[in-house]
Amino acid sequence: MISIAKRNIRIFFRDRSAVFFSLLAVFIIIGLYVLFLGDVFAQGMGSLPGIRFLMDSWIMAGLLAVTSVTTTMGAFGVMVEDRSNKTLRDFLASPLKRRSLVGGYVISSFAIGVIMSVITLVLAEIYIVANGGELLSLFDLAAVLGLILLSVFAGNAMVLFMVSFFRSQNAFATACTVIGTLIGFLTGIYIPISQLPPPVQLVIKVFPVSHAGALLRRVMMERPLSVSFAGAPQEAIDNFSQGMGIYFRFGDTVTTAGFNIAVLVATAVLFYALALWNVSRKQK
Known about the structure:
1% strand
């Protein structure tokens, strides 16, 4: 299992196009934000102190949530390629057990997702500091790293289930392009959730990756919120937090960090189970 995982990791990082396209959604979001969304958001917030620090932290937290999905998706491209060129059959003809083979793909995609997410975090912190913001404290950094592990765990499960249906590289590439383009909207990154119609808000609230974004925003925006809203009433902070997707509201119920974590854990368990069911069903 570990040998298969190491092999898959080497293949992924050797293919520069695979690495690039796994980060395509990240490049799109950063490009849009740097070119005009950052200035639009900052101007729309008026004269709040540290507004750029606040909005940079908001967009980068969402970016990390997106990365947890797109990079694992790119990593599973090795599995699709092995399936399309019959390499998978060669593995199955060997003494290697099927669960060890599948486990190797899962471990490698998880490892790649974590590595790429950590790299994204480093770049995000450099960007925030370059624009006048502050580095995360050691405690907050540890919390973000823990949330990255959880986000990649859930994203890996969702992607594994999706990949279990693909047999050709063309179909997989098309799906990656579509998902990479849409995921920014589905996680409420391009536009604050409060500015969207209620039906769209509901879609964002039930999308598991949005809960990863909410958790990351809670941590990464704690310091900039204290700077921008110093002396402001709690109601103003709550309204801003809800409008920017730091937490969600379902009727009169406000989501907590525990609820967000439970959603991600349940998502991982559900989609890993569905993926195993789908693979077993196709073997019969």
